[in-house]
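Exercise 7.
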Amino acid sequence: MPAGHGLRSRTRDLFSRPFRKKGYIPLTTYLRNYKIGEYVDIKVNGAVHKGMPHKFYHGRTGRVWNVTKRAIGVEVNKQVGNRIIRKRIHVRVEHVLPSRCQEEFQLRKIRNDELKAEAKARGEKISTKRQPEGPKPGFMVEGATMETVTPIPYDVVNDLKGVALFLSNGLRLGDSNKNSSGGLIWSTAKEKTDLVRKPDSDVDPAAGVVEDRDDIDGGFSSLDGMLRWAIGNSDPEKLKETAQDVQRMSSDERQMEIKELMEKLKTPSDAQLMQIAMDDLNNSSLTLEDRQRALHELLILVEPIDNANDLNNLGGLAVVIRELDHPEPEIRKLSACVIGKASQNNPTIQRQVLEFGTLRKLMKMVISSCVEEAIKALYAISALTRNNFPGQHLFYAEAGDLMLQSVVDLMASSDLDLQEKALLAVKSLLHLKTTEALVFQDFCGLDMLLDRMRQQLRDLMQDEFRKDYAVDVESLRTEVELIYHRKLGKAFAGDGQIHSSGISAMSAAKMRPKPPLLSGPTAFCRSLLLLFFFLSFYIFLLASPIRSGSILQKTAAPFITPLRLEIPRGGAPNGSSITAPRFVYPDAHNSSSAFGYSNIFLHHPNPYNPKLGNYFSEHMFKLSLLRSSLLTLNTQEAHLFFMPFSINSLRNDPRVRNASSISTFVTEYTERISREFRFWNASLGADHFYVHCHSVGREAASKHSALHNNAIQVTCSSSYFQRLYIAHKDVGLPQVWPRPPMEALTPPTERHRLVFFTGRTKNSWIRQEVMSIWGNDTAMGIFSGRSSYPYEEGFKRSRYCLHIKGYEVNTAKISDAIHYGCIPVIISNYYDLPFANILNWSRFSVIVSHREIKSLKKILLAIPRETYMTMYENLSQVRRHFVWHQIPAGYDSFHMTAYQLWLRRGVHRLQK
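Solution. The predicted structure, written as tokens, is:
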């Protein structure tokens, strides 16, 4: 007989706790009150083995039938065959949570009772039945004009201006010339402008000579460009004399000079970087932009605790705290961020910052008219007082309870976004399981404020464009009001304030006088609650989505350009300046591979075969790499290593075919190269990458942990939802079909159809929903299967083309739309778009959520003509990035993908 399995078998992943939730169990878990008849959710906590229910009950909802000292009796329905059995089990409190299954019903019941009471007072009869929700109104997303961001040149290159670099035949380097800022770290704003825009004084502008970008002083895009500039700007006679001097030098002298040069090129330590930033902040003549850059540098450096302590030892805390009095809000905001980052979970820094009297300055910043400044000040206050008893007492001594009232007053703001966040913060505080009446005295004015909010939201519901948002906020307001009245009733019931005379809890709250300031344990308890409030308020302000038209959105400066990174002529994406050579394992060149699967590793003999279809990009990348200048046979120069197996070829090989066999094949191949070559073990695969466009490829690395955790996956199925796809590590590959060379686009005046889409609907419920809603709309050409006119004509004659998720998030339709000049409308959640860290997709496409399908037509018709023309022009510029060539060309799909790999090249192999 086979071996049996225990009750806890195969539950490692099922009972695992979420990311960053694996610490101690929160105290509120043991402070919750459960009553018989309430609904609870059974969610097993893998850290507590006692009282752990069977895995069958994990995720079930039941009713409480018994409450003991440490456990809850839960009645759960269990289906056995055609019967439903009510199982009664006891579960420890760590494994249950209050269920919210009846929350919507209770809120709706209370709301209906209020509506009926109001209608009865008016002498009317109303219906409180739920009505189907109509489509939401569309809104415009407009951005700034197109501009190009120039990256800052490498500072090492700036320090080597005027240095003559020579070949390895013995030429000697001259003295380096530091930049005018005197540091090895960053250039000032004026120096960057001079480096990029200042032409060479020897070039006559009237002659019409255009310099190459590498010839500009300091604007080098690679070390090769710097070498050419150094040789071209050197005197041949002096070079000859220097070469003769070097030839007369001994080997020891040469090694000593090389060692001195390497010392000059050595990267400064974090302490030196912080000292340079402090010197810049102490410089009163420093420009505002350079002062911001110095604070940004400190913000990055002080995150490790050791660096924060070094900043204190260097006297940098006093320098940063002094910037809190700067007249510019941006400087004060960055200074508060640095203080908060350095103080969190660091008692030494917390104590030192509090001794400087920083808390009083930060509390003044909270009431600033600048919303972002107030947010950062709240963050710094929470970091200073978290797990810091002296800081909490000082916070209360500085009238922290009064600040709480000012934060609650944000609910009276005319901005719906701020109202929503303040309501969420109050709700999080009210959910704390405590019945101390003094806590709720701080909210004595909350009932009146909620009443005013109700009237204000009713007025906003008359506005067609703000109605839906106002309804959402009103629902949240009603929920907060319900919780507040219930909690306040409990508090006064515990203090004996509810009498038989019929005075309600609300009335008692208004009549009760406010107690004086307290000290000792009571003040400490209230301080803790205030801290919880500030932490939740800060988290909601930063983490919750920003609604259109909110104050935070209006005050935020635009930081996204049509091209997120500059792609200069002669720059990185065209391949000539990418300093990350690739080494391809020999299987890609050897037709008699010892592994016995040469067809899997060799490039496809005819990648333009129409039968390849969706897998064209997978084969073209390998062919382009083998024919590009990025290939190297010198393994010491290689920054990345290409594993040349083809998932599409494996899928068509009769010896492999299925997904399990493919993952076994890839695992064996990885183990083979780790045995025969030393490169894999040097980095555990972190500098290796493989390419695939087949959906089976997403599980190819599932049986080799180092392969799917460390190696770079270049895939067309770049979905956040995929189990083995890691966005910051892996690279999205555009899925492109073989298409004819690019032609002139059809002008917008000849595009008479609004929308075009054709494709199968059986493999996607989203496509089925789009078809059911818009399939019969004559203005929108949406077809299930083949269209009534040629496929290409649909793209050429339409203004917008839909990219809808099918079996995978990716399809070739998005590349086809770009190829024919049709604005892509992307309806595919969790899709990590190709080249997303290079191209700004919002400037040449429309991204729609699944929930907005009913409003699709309204959204597209609301886009102004000027915005559409701007998107059309942007689309014509990015077309060349979605094209493959047999011989790689500048800015094509190969070089754009290679550029993304180049951005992930910073891996150092271990030395034996």
